[in-house]
Amino acid sequence: MQKGEEHKNSGMEIGIYTLGDLSPDPFTGKTISSGQRMKEIMEVAKLADEAGLDVFGVGEHHRLDYATSAVPVVLAAIAQSTKRIKLTSATTVLSTVDPVRLFEDYSTLDLVSDGRAEIIAGRGAFVESFPLFGYDLNDYDALFSENLELFLKLNENERVSWSGQFRPPLINAEIAPRPLQSQIPIWVGVGGTPESAARAGRLGLGMAVAILGGDPERFKPLIDLYRKTGIEAGHDLDKLKVGITGHGYISKTTQQAKGEYYSYYTSYWSNVNRQLGRNSGLISKSDFENMTGQDTALFVGSPQQITEKILQQYELFGHQRFMAQIDIGGIPFKKIAEGIELLATKVVPIIRRETNKS
Questions:
Q1: Which residues of 177-205 are buried (b: 16+ CB within 10 A; e: fewer)?
Q2: Do residues 247 and 216 make contact, with C-beta atoms less than 8 angstroms apart?
Q3: Which one of 45, 54, 177, 349 is most buried, by most CB atoms within 10 A?
Q4: Which candidate, 270, 214, 222, 211, places its Cα nearest to that of 246?
């Protein structure tokens, strides 16, 4: 069966996202302030909107080396300087947030943005939010399941009666405000576990898959499982949306992109691994060369190479959305802005044309 026959598509959505990391510039050793980082994130979102990208995402961390803890506040600020771009979390750590407050925050964001709010809900690689907000890490999975169930109920009903294990019951509670959209779109962020993919399919929610490197083909069984489970649960295939997220860097030529990106990329992963208590050694240049090969999921190269990689994954997955994280490791604002321009003018038109074929 041909790609277009299996998954009808009006053209892939293309976006960018940030986790707001406060990483030292590997060349100067300097780290910008949280305030400056926040200003740059809002300016990047404005540039993405003006360039015609479809989605802008902000991720959640609760650490001093990240600037974006209160994601809905950041997105609400971005909403005031943008007009059409969708605004999503990337991701919301659903296990450690009260679903009622989460719904109120994003429903309010939906109102102030004229209907552009979305949520990607995940469990998160970092766990500092558990002790910070008084949750037990042993309840990691159970909290996520219960909070997702409650959020979906809040999304569907103006009044809710509900009881669960981890928060007080709701008795005919008024759930306000209601969003401008009929419901807030919610995607489940998946790192690679079949259980998460099956849950997203069973509930008929979108699935956002983080593919940060290596051979993307290893994720195809996960996406196949998601669609199979969703169809078996009675959901239409057209409503089972798949988003792919990953790291990216774009320059005029592939060699220029690799040369510029290497130091930021290896410095970023050294910092992240150290934060997670792992080996923090630097990536060798030869390993980096392999990691950025044509058949890998690390999007580093010229507009042509980035386009080819996105379309190769599209042939594999038939996904509806692609989002790149292009600002890691202390990359200067000027280079991020140049990347957005190249993405919007050289890559996006081709991707939209090729994925809009029936």
A1: ebbbbeebbbbbbbeeeeebbbbbbebbb
A2: no
A3: 45
A4: 211
Q: Tokens 């510039």 label which residue?
A: 25
Q: Taking the mean position of all CA atoms in its chain, how far away is CA 148?
A: 17
Mean of pLDDT over the chain: 94
Hunting for tokens 């809900």 — which residue is that? 121
pTM score of the predicted model: 0.95
Radius of gyration over every alpha carbon of the chain, rounded to an integer in angstroms = 20
Structure token pair of residue 288: 């980096």
Residues 6+ apart with CB under 8 A from 89: 57, 58, 59, 60, 71, 72, 75, 106, 118, 119, 120, 121
Which residues are bridge partners to 89 per DSSP? Answer: 58
Residue 333 CB partners (closer than 8 Å, separation 6+): 40, 43, 44
pLDDT in tens, 190-228: 988 999 999 999 999 999 999 999 999 999 999 999 999
Q: What is the pLDDT of residues 17-42, one digit of tens each?
A: 999 999 999 999 999 999 999 999 99
Give the 3-state secondary structure of residue 262: helix
Comparing C-alpha atoms, which of 241, 348, 319, 272 is closest to residue 19?
272
Nearest by Cα to 83 from 109, 116, 126: 116
Nearest to 179 by CA among 119, 83, 102, 104: 104
How far does the chain reach from its first CA to its final CA, in angstroms?
Answer: 13
Beta strands (DSSP E) in the chain are: 13-18, 55-58, 86-89, 92-93, 117-122, 159-162, 170-174, 186-190, 206-210, 242-250, 299-301, 321-325
